[in-house]
Amino acid sequence: MCNQYKRKGTSIQNKKAHGKDHKNWSRRGFLSSFGMLTSGSLVLNNLAVSSLYSNPLIPLINNANTDNVLLIIRLRGGNDSLNMVVPSGQYSLYQNARPNLAIPQNNLYDLGAGWSLPDYMVNPTASSTNLSNFNTMWNNGSMAVLHSVGYPNMSESHFDGERNWATASGGGVSLETGWMGRHLNQIYPNYLSNLPAVPPAIHIGSNTDTMFETGNGNISYLIKSIESLNQIVESGTLYDVQNLPDCLYGSELGFVRSIANSTQHYTSVIKDAFDASSNQVTYPNTVNWENRFMGEKLSTIARLIKGNLGTKIFMVDMDGYDTHDQQAISHQHLMEDLAESISALYNDLSLSGLANKVLTITTSEFGRNIRENGSRGTDHGNAGSMLLFGEGLTSGGYYGTPLNLSSVDLDNHDVAVPFQLDYRDVYYTILKNWLCVDASLLQLLMGGSYNEVLNLIQTCSAVESCPPNKTLGNQTLSGSQTHQSEQLTSSNGTVSNGADIQLKSEGRVRLDEGFKVEQGGKLKVAIEDCD
Amino acid sequence: MNTCCTTNSLNIYVPNTIKPWNEARIKHLYNRIGFGATQQEIAQGLQMSPSALVDQIIDLAVNTPLPPIPAWVNWDFDQMLIASQCYYNGQLRYNTRDIFMAGEWLRAIAEEPNRLRFKMALFWHNHFVTEESKYQNIIYMYEYYHKLLEFGLGNFKAFTRAIVTDKAMLNYLDGRNNEVCNPNDTPNENFARELYELFTIGPGNYTDNGSLNDVHETARALSGWKIKRISVANGWTADDSQAPVYFDVNCHDSEMKTIFGQTYNFDVDGVIDNLFQQKPNEIANFICRKIYKEFIHTEEIDDSIINGMKTTFLNNNFEIEPVIRQLFKSEHFFDTCFMGSKVKSPADYFVGFFRDVNFQLTDTPLYGGSHQIQNNAPTVTAGFTGGINLGIDEPITCSVPHIFQPYTNNLMGTFIGGLNRTLRENGQNIFNPPNVGGWDGHHTWLSTSQLLYRWERLSFLLNSRLTNDQQTALVNFIKDICNSSIDNYEIATVVLNHFIQRATLYQYDRSLEEDPNNNNDLEVKTAATIFAGSFPQEEFDLGYWSWSYFDAFNQVKQLIIHIVRLPEYQLQ
Hints:
- The complex is a heterodimer.
- Chain A contains 14 helices and 22 strands.
- Chain A is α/β, with parallel strands linked by helices.
- Chain A has two domains: 374 residues, Alkaline Phosphatase, subunit A (3-Layer(aba) Sandwich), CATH 3.40.720; 59 residues, no CATH class.
- In chain A, the strands form six sheets. In chain A, strands 3, 6, 7, 8, 9, 10, 11, 12 and 13 form a nine-stranded mixed β-sheet that branches. A three-stranded parallel β-sheet of chain A has the order 14-17-20, with no helix packed on it. A three-stranded parallel β-sheet of chain A has the order 15-18-21, with no helix packed on it.
- In chain A, strand 1 and strand 2 form a beta hairpin.
- The longest helix of chain A is centred in the middle third of the chain and has 29 residues.
- The two termini of chain A are 48 Å apart.
- Chain B is mainly α.
- Helix content of chain B is 49%, strand content 3%.
- Chain B has 25 helices and six strands.
- In chain B, the strands form three sheets. A two-stranded antiparallel sheet of chain B has the order 1-4. In chain B, strands 2-3 form a two-stranded antiparallel ribbon. A two-stranded antiparallel sheet of chain B has the order 5-6.
- In chain B, a hairpin with a 5-residue loop joins strand 2 and strand 3.
- The longest helix of chain B is centred in the first third of the chain and has 20 residues.
- Chain B is globular, with a radius of gyration of 27 Å.
- The two termini of chain B are 20 Å apart.
- The interface between A and B is large, with 64 and 63 residues.
């Protein structure tokens, strides 16, 4: 018979104690109350050391030592980027290809070098009190346009295109797992059993995304909206994982209860970060059009970042880009919503001094054909422009080779923008320069060799408040030693049989690939927050 | 961990006072056979012996004819093309899959009394894995699905032989590219390796390198099986999906091969005969273990039971049905320790929920389903389907009702219309397992995100999708199972026991609340409090509440939302 004993404060019956219980969760308390700290398994900054060494793909611990945040906005359906970044320097060819859809010449905002944005992206019509818009971001160097981004032999299928962009596949490369899934799984190899203290990635949407597939599940925390979390938090119950019914049923129930508690916990930390902060600008409230809610989604993300949640990867979906038919108004609405939401986000982050900590990128599974079709829409094409935002950009501006409309066959109604810049070069650059992934891992995570997009993003800087590394070097650690209050890096070291080593650090402990703990040796690591 | 699983045998379970034949065991049987039990099935089961009930379920599955083959399976290329163009701007593949799935498979597992057949098909889909995202052809999907149904309780050897030249499989594991047309051609080993590693005998029972290479030799023997190509338009070719697969002797390696030490001029039939002659024990062990893990437990495995199943499998010449029948009838299957020990798959959870609340999946919730159908889609100017540009320049007008309308018209806007999407979003994308190894199941079904998804999905359904009639029906159903009780503790107890399956029933005696040794389930008290809501307990105690109370639906709803979130409801 299951003994239903519960610790005081673990259920809603005692609401006051319950609230207090939430507040008293330390990370360690969190882990141990869910049975995750078991004897013999060390927890090192969310990694179980024991499992670390059994995984040959994990040469480094905690290499993502950065507080940079990446926000991926996915434009679903294939964005018509020629009506986003307009080839105004080749206007007559552009207009001939799009007699009904070309943005009128006097409604363009010139970015220079023969390219423009539609006015409605620069001066949105919807009411807002935003301090700056895309024009100021462009002029400040915190906006970049990447021309003709794609990959060889681009697929014009939504499914294959999305899958390629999610996994870093295409052009002869076929990968099963997501590029972010690989990145995060490398940081949190045992994330299912050894839950990170905060969600490694948050995806606001309705469908888990292949981008976060690790091969062993999906590492993103998928939420629909903060409202939906409210109810979970308010009705939340912490389940007892210590006093369980007997037998197999009890152990299985313990498993589900620990997942439920973790879900509660994630919901709580997200909600806490959200409640601890506020938006300092007004976000667009462009109605529930195509179910997008972009303003609401980005305002939520701003609050989670400002509330110090600690999650580093965010993703939002924006639907409605499959504009085969009568696209003029619908695409304009999309662009206005996108531009105004992103502007609001960066204004909001600026007021908290965080605009240099968040890099935003837009992706879409393909661009659309250069020529409009017979129903005043555009059909599936190939390459397209990508937009990047944030003060972490080196200087903003243009990257890649722009489309030359005189060099494509405009008589062919299916003519598409030829690809020039591989999107995986962009991913590579983000991993290397923004997420601070060690150079030795890049090829593994990307599933191939790619090139840095030069001068796009400033070289990675580690968390500044951390003390400098101290290298233990190639040595055998034996006997009983304590290393304290310093950054430790060790390569090819060994903790010998019988040794009892304590590493105490205020930040990173980095043990390189050759480092091993011999059987009988003990390695205990205590990490305190750097800042 | 004390699992408490006794060493019960494969002997037929005979109820006794310690292991009575009760509602919990009937639910256990139906949960494992597939997707819960209706009230009628439970009532009827209590009147039968366990053995007779298992016989009835299995006989029904075996004897019920398979669903008729849909007419569109035999449509020619042009007809399929037009249909695809007229459906969601040419996105035949996705959306048809949803509708097809909804129409054929999910409806069947949700509503067919003979759902064991469909449950077995789902089991074998996770064994002989193919992914629709690779073969991208609805005809191949149907033919593959039909084989899963046809052989799911049939002969495993015949099943394996049929899968070798299945079109979905020939595409998925590159069998169609396994050509030896010239003496220097090397065969494609992809299928041959999985045939042994994942489909029949498991790793370690064959060689795949060195001079005695079973995989390489098998690939040679299987070379030459192809799918017919036809010209379509503007120089493009495409698969002739309806044409039978054919054997191209010119691209078959007809030299001698040595497989498992036997040297012969093997062809496809020879490969299968040789495999089942040389490796019967390995096959029986591999397959019976997999069946055990699916129907009993993934990790708590009793090898003596698997040995008994092996004997049955071998004595019956690889017939699947006797193994299943013996297992389901056994005292091992009905061992208390396995009850409620398996994490529900998304299909178990969501389809089971519909059965638990007595909804028909063909019921129509508010606002329609998740899809909007275009019966008269706009004209299409550029032909494009399945990733192949077919170069169609002629506009196609969708003036004729297209072939999927019988499905779409019947199912759009029903619960079932969104069910496949729900399962996909919850991690069980039917027809697209994550890889050739299939879904790992059990613990891997639940992550923090996936649990949150389950909570939110059913809250959303109950909070904002039900029509007034459905709300009333739900209240009446709960009232019925509670025998019209107006005691909120009694209601909470009955409803908990209705939804949650565990070895012991929930119970609560309020008169014993002060007794430190009481056996009360505090969960009942929590549920009763939630059900009461703002209605004072004192007035419940005075009998003032009634099922016609204006807020009764809301009370029922809050109770159900609470229960479907419980960790206990994630188990079966």
